[in-house]
Amino acid sequence: MKRAAAHALWSHWRRHPGQALTLVLGLALATALWTGVQAINAEARASYARATAVLTQDAQTTLIARDGGTIPVATYVRLRRAGWQVAPVLEGTTRLAGRTVTLLGLDPLSGPVLPQTAPLGSGGIAPFIGPPGQLYAAPDTAAQLNGAVQPEIVVSDDLPPDHLIGDIALVARLLGRPDHLTRLVLAPAQATDLPPLDQIAPALIRADPAPGSDLAGLTDSFHLNLTAFAALAFAVGLFIVHSAIGLAFEQRRPMYRTLRALGLSARALTGLLALELLAVALMAGLLGVAMGYGIAAALLPDVAATLRGLYGAPARDSLGLRPGWIAAGLLMSLLGTVVAGGQALWRLHRLPILASAAPRAWRRASTKGLGWQGGLAGLLLLAAGLLTQTAAPPHLGSAFASLAAMMLGAALALPPLLAGLLALGTRLARGPVAQWFWADSQQQLPGLSLALMALLLALAANIGVSTMVGSFRTTFTGWLDQRLVADVYIDAGSPETAQAVLPALRQTATAILPRITTEARLNGHPGEVQLLSDDHSYRDHWPLLSPAAGVWEGLAEGRGALINEQLAYRSGLAPGDPVTLDGTALPILAIYSDYGNPRPQAIVGAATFAALFPDRAVQRYGLHMDPEDLPALRLDLEGRFGLRPDQIIDQASIKAASLRVFEQTFTVTAALNVLTLGVAGVAILTSLLTLASLRLPQIAPLWALGMTRARLGQLELLRAGVLALFTAILALPVGLALAWILLARVNVAAFGWRLPMVLFPGDWALLGGIAVLAALAAAAWPARRLATRPAADLLKVFASER
Amino acid sequence: MSVRSLLCAGLIALQPSLGLAQGFAGLASDAEGFALPQPNPSFSFPRDHGPHPAFRIEWWYVTANLSDTAGRDYGVQWTLFRSALHPGETAGWDSPQIWFAHAAVTSAQRHLVGQSYARGGIGQAGVTATPFAAFINDWAMTGRAGPGQDGLSALDLTARGPDFAYDLQLDADGPLIRHGDGGYSVKSPRGQASYYYAQPGYQVSGHLDLPSGPVAVTGQAWLDREWSSQPLAPSQTGWDWFSLHLDSGDKLMVYRLRDTDGADFNPGTWIGQDGTAHYLNDGEITLTAQETTSIATATLPTTWRITVPHRQIDVIVTALNPQAWMDTTPAYWEGPVQVTDAASGGAVGRGYLEMTGYD
């Protein structure tokens, strides 16, 4: 009996292959988006772990130059000869075979001081030192460089992309810096009777492991963003599954009745259907994981570029299969099926045998839920509003919680709102067809509401994220214009060179702005203090958040300091409060925005800087000059003073590089946006398909009254368009609220800066158009099926109940 | 001192994963590009106290037998090795010269070891002939000889390990001597050789910093200078090397190169009380291992009988501390020994023993 029943039940899918495909595809899509994002996150985190393991100098105490410059090799030798256990590191970027790479030069003979994880293979140090020497590189990087450079490229799985490790001699040659080091790694165990650092190397200071090296913490918000997106996409995908399962259950009602009448127990029937769901979940899960892998592989290069560019996190382009996210993907698929199909199963189990054939028995019941649904939505929206007001400074967790509450509340509020709008339409309608159209739309709303909720979420996410990205872009480009006041930036590399190049600079530049940055503790946090000359270009352009009179005079006269927004948020500071710089308290004159910098920073005038840090000399300049004179100046500085090309940078290049990083950052979000919208479109399609067969008894009388099938099909299309339009209009405030939470709460918590919100109504119109088009496209197939339906089908409605 | 530490030079490796490509077999690889020792050398001092970067390997090797005021014996080792990846010297990081050093303090109970590595070319390690100074990181052997004296005749010696340090003053009471044939020391019947001279007689005073506290010590020391490029035959697997200060005032250096492919090679140098050196040919000496000690994976002879019949030598050589294992890279055994007369059993001197190739 069971076998026969199973055969009968499952033959449904053979007869409706399109439906089977929809079900599997919907679940697979939902799983795919979720899995893809999980895979990206897992890969990125693995990259961090790898990088932390390899470049462990970041996690070790190092000695760096006080002035932020380089360390002469002679200083290193002096420390070693005095018994200090230090290892030299030379780091720099250069172009190799057309690729910009970071070179890390180590001395393998620094023995016990070096991190044990230095990825040297069994070849030993002779080939490593060379000549020609070896460069260790990640597989991708190695593939690009192999044969194109003279040193042998050795593949190492332990290295982040575009980071090469080589012997210090080789790296010094490649960087053209034979006499300088970037930092010295300090061994944990040092003899107790060493000469103190300030005697033997006064230009160096101890730097504890940089907070900036905590990549996991720094990038958490980025991954949380992606995960939130994935969860949203998954939720949207579940709407599809729900409607597909609902359809299959609806269509098989007569069969259930027959099977039950033949003696199959409710338990056995439910069991068979549960088994069916399990099979579907596994199949779709596997497919989804495979698709997720594809999505991740396609998006990962951009994510990796973002992480590298925005956070300096060394993420890799290539994707590995990790059991973690594969298992998570399958589990999500099963979970999704339970959520989407459990209700149907439960109801089936409880339905009386003879009621089973009445298709609208529980559909009508669900319309009664509109009232409490609206109430719940109201509560959620209220909670979302309260959550945004709680923590100050904003907390990432509460920001995302309010985001979730707001989105869910809005989705739940949609059916009651649409019902209201349709009721209004019914009241305003004139003529029998129009009245039927509105009334019928109301009748259909319960069946479509889940799909429309999915569309609402997708649209709101689209509006919210694009508003955030657009605001960010507008602000960021404006800020770049303000912040990059000089035309050309010069890093002389050492105070001596800085003095030597001055005459040459004076000949070309109309103004020379000395720049010094030094490591310091700002209100106890490690950060940096920068000197800002009193120059009109700063006065005119510097991006102060709260411009006030007398700020610049105060700075020049040493009456206070400026601090960046990150420090202000972190320490809860406002203008007028004192800020301590290495123990000296100064009043805060103003706060400035400092996008892209995760660390606290303060700015003081020349006199204050000299008083606070008397031993720091100028190494860098900003120049006001005619950009046309740059090639000549560059030739002169490179020729006479041995400056490298990367020590002389013009404003346009910095801007271009910054914007490139920026654009990459949001490629992923844009791609996920499109995918989510696509999933919503599929959700509408499956809902309409579900409704189409249920609606025949409602449509047949209209046809019998004289409406053509083509006309009925057009009305179906129109309805889909109208519902999509209403949904799009309702999505607008939801999207804007989302953007506000992202800009004013999530960003502040994640990055320490708040962005002004900029609105782009043109984009909204475009998005609304796309939503209507997507709905029309989804409705086209069911409408066409209706328009071309054999008249016999419609006649049959009158011949038998079903 | 003999070829003993050529192995060290060849096997220099900082961590297991950082081994130099030239392994033990690399010692026997050809010396292409490097200079080779030639017979009848004419050393010129102080110049030859300094480095010879045209040769692959070179060392400045001091061993000292010391005693404290309570009569307890100690051994001290200080060795600076130069190992060239390529012949020649270049200033800066590009220098092909690699320097490393071993230091040890041995008592009957303890054996404390330190090691040190450095690049050539940047001033972190090196040797200058005039004034004499050999240094690596914070270890140094610094000359303080007066004008007209040999640069190695008076030295200050310092080193430090994780749990010890020492500071010794060395003053020679005799001339430099040349091993082998006027300083040309043949290592194998197949022709491998090195340049090899020594200052075998120093009076030492100074102090050791031990975990138990500082100890004032006095005693004798021996300094070996050797350089070469291709020191071993392929079948020579290791060696046993002795330097002995006899109470008579005579000194004896003997070594045995163990050969898997035929007879061991077993020459030496006899240094009379007047400081004249006499070459001992292979076959004039017999070396017999009498007792062994197991350390880690190695089993080594730590009691030996040495006879040199035509010098009336028949002595038993016993390790002061049989556990004097140098857990360095590479690992070997090196420690002070006591010398007793084989017939009477009475003490007749002390010295140093090095054994390689047993692990």
List the helices and strands and how they pair.
The complex is a heterodimer of chains A (802) and B (359).
Chain A: H1 2-15, H2 17-54, E1 62-65, E2 71-72, H3 73-81, E3 86-96, E4 99-106, H4 125-129, E5 134-137, H5 139-145, E6 152-155, E7 163-167, H6 168-175, E8 180-181, E9 183-186, H7 197-200, E10 204-207, H8 215-251, H9 253-261, H10 266-311, H11 323-350, H12 361-367, H13 370-390, H14 396-428, H15 432-483, E11 488-491, H16 495-508, E12 511-515, E13 517-522, E14 525-531, H17 536-541, H18 551-556, E15 561-564, H19 565-571, E16 578-581, E17 584-592, E18 601-604, H20 606-612, E19 620-624, H21 630-641, E20 648-650, H22 651-694, H23 696-704, H24 709-751, H25 761-787, H26 791-799
Parallel strand pairs in A: 4-7, 5-6, 14-18, 15-17
Antiparallel strand pairs in A: 1-9, 1-10, 2-8, 3-4, 3-9, 5-7, 11-19, 11-20, 12-19, 13-14, 15-18, 16-17
Helix pairs in contact in A: 1-10, 2-8, 2-10, 2-11, 2-22, 8-11, 8-15, 8-22, 10-11, 10-22, 13-14, 14-15, 14-24, 15-22, 15-24, 15-25, 16-21, 22-25, 23-26, 24-25
Chain B: H1 6-11, E1 57-68, E2 73-84, E3 97-107, E4 111-119, E5 125-128, E6 133-136, E7 139-143, E8 154-161, E9 164-172, E10 177-178, E11 184-186, E12 193-210, E13 213-228, E14 236-246, E15 251-259, E16 268-271, E17 277-280, E18 286-295, E19 298-308, E20 313-319, E21 325-326, E22 332-341, E23 347-355
Antiparallel strand pairs in B: 1-2, 1-13, 2-3, 3-4, 5-6, 6-7, 7-8, 8-9, 9-12, 10-12, 11-12, 12-13, 14-15, 14-23, 15-16, 16-17, 18-19, 19-20, 20-22, 21-22, 22-23
Structure explained in plain terms:
The complex is a heterodimer of chains A (802) and B (359). Chain A has 802 residues and is of the alpha+beta class. Chain A is built from 26 helices and 20 strands. In chain A, a hairpin with a 2-residue loop joins β3 and β4. Chain A is elongated. Chain A starts with a helix and ends with a helix. Chain B is an all-beta fold. In chain B, a hairpin with a 6-residue loop joins β11 (184-186) and β12. Chains A and B meet through α3, α4 and α6 of A and β4 of B.
